[in-house]
Amino acid sequence: MKRFEERITVGTSADRVYEYVADMTTHAEWSGNGLAVTKASDGPVTVGTVYATTAKQLGTQREQSTVTEMVPGRTFAWDSTGALGRAHHVFALASDGGSTTVTKSAEVVEPTFLAKAMGWKLSKDVPAGLSRDLERIKAHLEGSAA
Questions:
Q1: pTM exceeding the 0.85 threshold for the entire prediction
Q2: How far is residue 117 from each of residues 1, 55, 59, 111, 120, measured CA to CA in Å?
Q3: Which of 28, 35, 74, 84 could serve as a FRET partner for 52 with CA atoms 20 to 30 Å apart?
Q4: What's the rounded mean pLDDT across residues 4-31?
C-alpha cells in the first residue's frame, strides 16, 4: 500500500524530539483516538521492545507494536500489528541549528482484506492524522497547549 509522510519544523533540538517520540508511552499525549500504550516486554527499550496499544476508533482497536529502529537524535521506528495488518511507522529527524525537521511516515506493509477495502479512506485519513500528530508534538515540545 501507499506510504504516507508529513513533516513539521519544531523549535528544539533533535535529541529532545527523539527523547519524546522514542518514549512510546508518551504517544498517548499527542495521538488521537484515546490511545493507551503499555510496555509489554521487560528490560530497557531497545529494538525488539514490545508495546500493547488500545485506541477508540470505529470501536476498540488493539494492536501490538514492536520497536524496529533506534538511532538517537535521528530515527525511531516501529511496526504495529492489528486489524489493518502490519503497519510500519517512522520518525525521521533532521537538525538545523536550534530547530528540528520532524518527518512522520506510515505505511501498511502487510494489509489485511479490511485495509485493502478501506484504502480510499486510509488515503484521506492517514495524512490528516500524521499532520495532527506532528502539530501536537510541536505544541508539546515548544511549551504551548495542543
A1: yes
A2: 11, 21, 18, 10, 8
A3: 74
A4: 95
